[in-house]
Design goal:
The complex is a heterodimer of chains A (51) and B (214). Helices cover 37% and strands 16% of the residues of chain A. Chain A has one helix and two strands, in the order ββα. In chain A, strands 1-2 form a two-stranded antiparallel ribbon. By secondary structure, chain B is an all-alpha fold. Chain B contains ten helices and no strands. In chain B, helix 4 packs antiparallel against helix 6, helix 6 runs antiparallel to helix 7 and helix 7 packs antiparallel against helix 9. The chains are: A alpha+beta (51), B mainly alpha (214). The interface between A and B is small, with 10 and 11 residues.
Chain lengths: 51, 214
């Protein structure tokens, strides 16, 4: 049986910034989306043969 | 079109549809050069994940809650439905970021932008009612928290998040219909107006004056 890469069997962890609060899980997802966005802009797109 | 055909609403509608979206525009085989960038892929990734969301949701609807909560295959389709929604929302937000920084409403594309933005809001509502339909502690907690907010703006009597049957019907009938309609209009508008081109290169004052004198 495969187990989760990260132990999730505990209450969620949160980041706090003044009145702002967000779970680390959501924060990591947003960071990954920003990373994918940046990669989509900088990584060259494969081109087929020019006609 | 003959005079007789001109009186028929079906012939007029067909003529208008073909003029607005000729087949070569509706299903093109060539794209502009600037579309060859990964950022242009996220629109179609969003559509692809939406198809997986709809198909897995249809399978869940066929078999019912007892199946998706207890059997292995049911749990698998439940997970496919959840994770395709996660990807759908992530791809849609990256698509939104890309289009925002391109100012994709340029060139008479305002309605394309607006239908996309409204589809995003409707997707949030559809996902929210999906979370309410989980029939577990999380959905009870979300409903309990949400009811106060919705009551405070006066719509709790019409949209009762504690009413499981109502939320399930919103999730599987009403909101998917609205979202599907908006997505179809959005895609047809993209085909009609074309994909937004990048910003033209901005010349500095020195280079533009040099260009003017040469």
């Amino acid at each position: 049986m495969l187990t989760a890469l990260v132990n999730l069997n505990h209450p969620g962890s949160y980041i706090h910034w003044g009145f702002f609060q967000m779970s680390i899980a959501n924060f990591v997802v947003i960071l990954m989306m920003v990373l994918v966005f940046i990669l989509a802009i900088v990584v060259p797109f494969p081109r087929g043969k020019e006609e | 079109m003959s005079a007789d055909e001109d009186k028929m609403w079906t012939a007029r509608l067909r003529g208008a549809a073909v003029r607005a979206l000729p087949p070569e525009k509706l299903l093109p085989d060539r794209q502009p050069e600037y579309v060859s960038s990964w950022i242009y892929v996220f629109g179609v990734l969003t559509l692809t994940s939406l198809v997986v969301v709809l198909v897995s949701g249809a399978v869940l609807a066929l078999e019912g809650p007892a199946w998706w909560h207890t059997s292995k295959v049911g749990l698998f389709f439940n997970s496919v439905h959840l994770w395709s929604v996660e990807l759908f929302m992530a791809f849609m937000v990256i698509h939104l970021w890309g289009k925002f920084f391109m100012a994709a409403w340029r060139g008479r594309r305002a309605l394309t932008w607006v239908t996309g933005a409204v589809a995003f809001v409707v997707s949030i509502g559809t996902a929210f009612t999906g979370y309410l339909s989980q029939q577990n502690l999380a959905s009870q907690w979300i409903a309990g928290e949400a009811k106060d907010g919705l009551n405070s703006v006066g719509i709790g009597a019409y949209f009762n998040v504690l009413n499981f049957g109502q939320m399930l019907m919103w999730h599987i009938v009403l909101l998917p219909l609205v979202l599907g309609f908006l997505v179809v209009i959005h895609v047809l508008l993209v085909r009609r107006r074309g994909v937004v081109p990048p910003f033209p290169p901005q010349l500095s004052p020195t280079s533009s004056s040099r260009a003017a004198t040469s």
